[in-house]
Specification:
Layout (H helix, E strand, L loop, with lengths): L5 H7 L26 H8 L14 H14 L3 E5 L2 H10 L7 E5 L4 H10 L6 E5 L4 H7 L4 E7 L11 H10 L3 E5 L4 H4 L9 E5 L13 E5 L1 H14 L6 H11 L2 H20 L4 E5 L22 E6 L3 H10 L4 E2 L9 E3 L11 H6 L6 E5 L5 H12 L3
Parallel strand pairs: 2-3, 2-4, 4-5, 5-6, 10-11
Antiparallel strand pairs: 1-7, 6-7, 8-9, 9-12, 11-12
Helix pairs in contact: 1-3, 3-10
The structure holds pyridoxal-5'-phosphate (PLP).
Length: 392
């Protein structure tokens, strides 16, 4: 394990880069293929007898820099970068599950993870149960002789429900399940699932890791053995590998991750406190508020509450629409973790893959609004929300 702190690793990565020309920034290896000195070298690379690159779908130095950085931040042995966050989610499940296996998934999940598990996996003979993972008894009751994997995210999008990682890690170990946590919302700077015995950590790097709203990408972190399996099966043959250019942009974005996360948390806390006292808001979901059930996990499990807030407006669905249409600085867009503050309506947008019943069961009401608090001056963000409240 390398000796640096997280904020140093965000900038340098575990393996300090030495460029032959002295370039400060590692170059972008924008190449599809790598030439061999002779036939013997090509054969040795394919046989795995000589380290080195062959073809970018199988590996690339720019991609490798990203994988090493994020693996170091997650304190995992290795990582695989993917074309999107969903590429990471699908690679983590498809690499280890086969027909006849059973997956225990959280009943509240990112909308497309839910759609993959509910609609796609059963087509390949994989049995999936959706469980309330705040409930240890429900988890126990979901176990089957063929249970192979547990998949969850925390805090849960968009209600920010926090799951007990100690409980989940112990449950998975006791029952020989491969445990997977989607750590997109907090990033390794605020939460390290590894400390709770989690086997695989997935990320949508589209969000905070890149942090500039100009890339879609993902990562899976795990043991050397698990990552080798992912790379040599699903990534190689299904092919959701990242573009080196995107990896280069994320390497650049990562250099400020520690500074950005501190600011996202600080501003989100102020916005959440503002919303909580507003007469037109009935409920605020943010683990940084003592009124939120997730607050007790701050400290031990999570170093910060992150930058995403959900809240319920007093009033009808139409009032909700009027409110989001009236914001001027807060941009009506899905995604999160960008410098811009983004506002969206989960029921009609990110969580539309759910039926209404499934959505309500996951705690996502018609009137819920999600805010990804950006890096603007927080007083400007609050002033924009204040004027939008006057629109209804
Ligand atoms: C965005 C997101 C994903 C999917 O990532 P993409 O990069 O959009 O494919 C998965 N999980 C969570 C929690 C997300 O926010």
């Amino acid at each position: 394990m390398n000796k640096f702190h997280d904020d140093t690793n965000c900038i340098h990565g575990p393996n300090h880069f030495e460029d032959p020309h002295g370039a400060l920034t590692a170059p972008l290896y924008q190449t599809s293929t790598f030439h061999f000195k002779n036939a013997a070298q090509g054969a040795a690379r394919f046989a795995g007898e000589e380290a080195g690159y062959i073809y970018t779908r199988l590996g690339n130095p720019t991609t490798r820099e990203l994988e090493e950085k994020v693996a170091a931040l997650e304190e995992m042995e290795d990582a695989a970068a993917t074309a999107t966050g969903m590429g990471a989610v699908s690679a983590s499940v498809l690499s280890f599950l086969q027909a006849g296996d059973h997956l225990i998934a959280s009943k509240a999940l990112y909308g497309c993870s839910y759609a993959l598990f509910a609609h796609m996996l059963p087509k390949f003979g994989i049995d999936v149960s959706f469980v309330d993972m705040t409930d240890a008894q429900a988890l126990q009751a979901a176990l089957k002789p063929n249970s192979k994997m547990l998949f969850a995210e925390t805090p849960i999008n968009p209600t920010m429900t926090v799951l007990d990682l100690t409980m989940l890690g112990q449950f998975a170990k006791a029952n020989q399940l491969i445990s997977v946590i989607d750590n997109t919302f907090l990033t390794p700077l605020l939460q390290k699932p590894k400390h709770f015995g989690i086997d695989l950590i997935v990320h949508s790097a589209t969000k905070y890791l890149n942090g500039h709203g100009d890339v879609v990408a993902g990562l899976v972190c795990g043991s050397k053995e698990h990552i080798a399996t992912i790379k040599l099966t699903v990534l190689k043959d299904i092919g959701a590998t990242i573009s080196p250019h995107d990896a280069w942009l994320i390497n650049r974005g990562l250099k400020t991750l520690h500074v950005r996360m501190a600011r996202h948390c600080e501003s989100a806390q102020k916005v959440a406190e503002y919303l909580e006292q507003h007469s037109k808001v009935t409920q605020v979901y943010y683990p940084g508020l003592p009124s939120h059930p997730g607050y007790r996990f701050l400290g031990e499990q999570m170093k910060g509450a992150g930058g995403v807030i959900a809240f319920e407006l007093k009033g009808s669905l139409q009032d909700g629409e009027a409110f989001i249409n009236a914001t001027k600085l807060c941009t009506l867009a899905v995604s999160l973790g960008d410098p811009e503050t983004l506002i969206q309506h989960p029921a009609s947008m990110t969580h539309s893959p759910y039926t209404r019943e499934e959505r309500l069961a996951a705690g996502i009401s018609d009137g819920l609004i999600r805010l990804s608090v950006g890096l603007e001056n927080v007083d400007d963000i609050i002033a924009d929300l204040a004027q939008a409240f006057n629109a209804f």
